[in-house]
Design goal:
Elements (H helix, E strand, L loop, with lengths): L7 E6 L3 H8 L3 E5 L17 E4 L16 H13 L6 E5 L5 H13 L5 H11 L7 H10 L5 H8 L12 E4 L15
Parallel strand pairs: 1-4, 2-3, 2-4
Antiparallel strand pairs: 1-5
Helix pairs in contact: 2-3, 2-5, 3-4, 3-5, 4-6, 5-6
Length: about 190
């Protein structure tokens, strides 16, 4: 088992959660998935370090589906701000493409308030050529973090993603606040 004693954020698909908890040494887990697919908490993750965000992968309200909301963003921001950064966070959704990459982007923006959003988005793209962050989730977070549309604009700077049914698991190191040039952004 590889245990990373760093502030890194990893993303994977639902079917790789147990494997990735072991591989990364993650001790915090975020599920950004509709409740029908919510997995059990892995034994390596204490219950109070498992955030369950019940939402569907939609970008506008639809009957009988749960859209990303201010409640989801508030829970994610509280969870990330309480992270001790002694071991990685693992974030997943069903395919690791949209909700989970949005949650990772939101977390990185929250942790690095002085780092340009575009720098963070490009770090995400370098780490995953399949990342397609859920725009509604990001838009709600943009308002909560008072980013004035910069988070959504940063998604556009990522360029096209490679089409895929699911992501290859990836990680991004937490960014270093003082560096506004973007050189601190790197893959985990």
């Amino acid at each position: 088992m590889i245990v990373r004693q760093s502030a890194s954020i990893h993303v994977c698909v639902l079917r790789h959660v147990s494997e990735m908890v072991k591989h990364t040494g993650a001790r915090h887990l975020v599920n950004a998935i509709n409740a029908d697919f919510l997995p059990e908490t892995p034994t390596a993750i204490p219950g109070d370090r498992h955030l369950k965000l019940d939402m569907n992968d939609i970008v506008k309200a639809q009957p009988d589906l749960v859209a990303p909301s201010t409640r989801h963003v508030a829970k994610l921001l509280d969870f990330v701000q309480s992270w001790d950064k002694q071991a990685p966070i693992l974030i997943h959704c069903y395919a690791g493409l949209s909700r989970s990459t949005a949650a990772a982007f939101i977390a990185l923006c929250a942790l690095n308030s002085r780092t340009p959003e575009e720098t963070i988005a490009r770090a995400l793209r370098r780490s995953s050529d399949t990342a397609v962050p859920n725009r509604l989730f990001v838009a709600v977070a943009d308002k909560a973090l008072r980013r004035e549309g910069r988070m959504i604009a940063a998604l556009d700077s990522m360029g096209e993603s490679r089409r895929a049914y699911e992501c290859t698991p990836f990680g991004v190191e937490a960014l270093q606040e003082p560096n506004r040039s973007g050189t601190a952004c790197k893959a985990a």
